[in-house]
Amino acid sequence: MATYLIGLDFGSEQARGVLVDVATGAQVADHVHAYRHGILNDTLPDGRPLPAGFALQVADDYLEAARAILSAIGRGRVVEGIGVGFTASSPLPARADGTPLSRLHPEAPHSYVKLWKHNAQAYADAITASHGASLENFGGKVSGEWLLAKAAQLAAEAPDLWAQTDRFIESGDWLVWQLTGRERRSLGFAAYKAQYAQGIGYVQGVVPGLASRLSQPLPVGSPAGGLSAAWREQTGILGSASVAVAVIDGHVVLPAIGAVSPGCFVGALGTSAAYLYLSDVERPLPPGIEGMAFDGSVRDLWCYEAGQPSFGDTLAWFARTFSRGESLEESFQVYNAEAAKLAPMAGRLVALDWWGGNRVPFADGNLSGLLAGLTRQTTSAEIYLSLMEALCFGARAVFDLFRHNGLVPERVLMASGLARANPHLIQILADVLNRPIDVPQMDHATAVGAAIHGAVAAGTVSTYAEGANRFGARQIARILPRLPAVELYEAGYGIYQALARQDTVHDALHALRALPALPTPFLKENIQKSAFRV
Questions:
Q1: If we measure between CA atoms, which residue out of 276, 138, 257, 153 comes closest to residue 207?
Q2: Domain residues for 24?
Q3: CA distances from 226 to 166, 172, 223, 267 (A)
Q4: CATH (domain of 214)
Q5: Helix or strand run (H / E) with residue 400
Q6: What is the pLDDT of residues 171-216, one digit of tens each?
Q7: What is the pTM of this model?
Q8: Distance from the first to the final alpha carbon of the chain
């Protein structure tokens, strides 16, 4: 009888699942389910307005998605293992039995999942100022995207809800809890998003009562438990169905693309970008790089992490805001086609890629994007190209921090949605880095990576290397840098760095963010009064 693995990939707006045949390694089914309520930026589901900067989700949407996916691809199948990749940091407050507070208090914004895009930078800055010395493995800084900052915001702005919070937990860990009936947290989430250090534990004294709302994590590849009887009944899944502890979505892809050995530098390019460097030797954390952990991404390796908080999101913003088609996809097609015809730096533009703030090296969510060099001759395609180039310059800034501090990449791989969907972007990145880039040719690589974590947890394979060999990508496309473009992009990167490092630029961007927003009714009223005066 055939047996299978299931990989679940929970992204920002939808979840995907794949069914992998254990004997052949083939993907035999997949299913996508969009979250019912999407991302809550402006209002709660009942229409109540949200404060500026909020980005929330409904925890029960994850259960609906998991139920739909597992039923669609797993019903009647004998499943050995299930793995979960989840976008992070996306924590939620829950009761001791796992009930999310948003189910009990749907009217309260702070009862919901705080999606990774939700930025609590002011609280992060306060934690950095008071506890920076305790954050050696994380560069002495806390990001506004991470769990500690979001816990501090919840405790300060909604103390009544914080008092009802028995568990403050990453959504990936919470989903595994719901699937198995057992709370089992992942070392990856705990280390990279909650600053857990092995042998030391969580940072103490950051948020009153936070320690009691967390729990000790397990290394990736650990079994959290079997799929519960209730979930088996709902989904029709058979077999042992061992569920692995969850993994950060940018990390979970590693075994699917064969990145399971020291010296690999991996970019997981999606709405945001995560950059990972694997090492079998512990080295000091390079300045500006965000964190490091052992057994938090794949077993028996150190993984150093950095990232850009807005990657594909930046391009999507432009294609949506300055639309060139009836749909976002059509607009992308037009811009990508036009940009591909342009020479490097064609518009003589340089942008700072901080549309969602900056993670590396400044850890400042209050920074914003900048576009320099505009003239009356500038075209929309040239602006779009400059945004792609800026994203690659931001990636180069991360890459250089690794290689200038003894973590020398021996192989560069790019994976996830944009790596295959936008080959011109990867060509620019190869030119900017002046390094060959390997792009594994695999559909749904992130979900397959999750399936391999499930295989390790179930004992289907004994190591991640074995899982990569049996279930990972079979073909690799190699993109080589183009010498004339390398030279021009070296000059462009120098301009990018000169802008990025200027305190006056940072001060100006902060000042812009701090300007008061006048209400629209006020503006309309005063426009009418001005018209009467004329």
A1: 153
A2: 4-251
A3: 24, 16, 8, 32
A4: 3.30.420.40
A5: helix 380-403
A6: 999 999 999 999 999 999 999 999 999 889 999 899 999 999 999 9
A7: 0.92
A8: 84
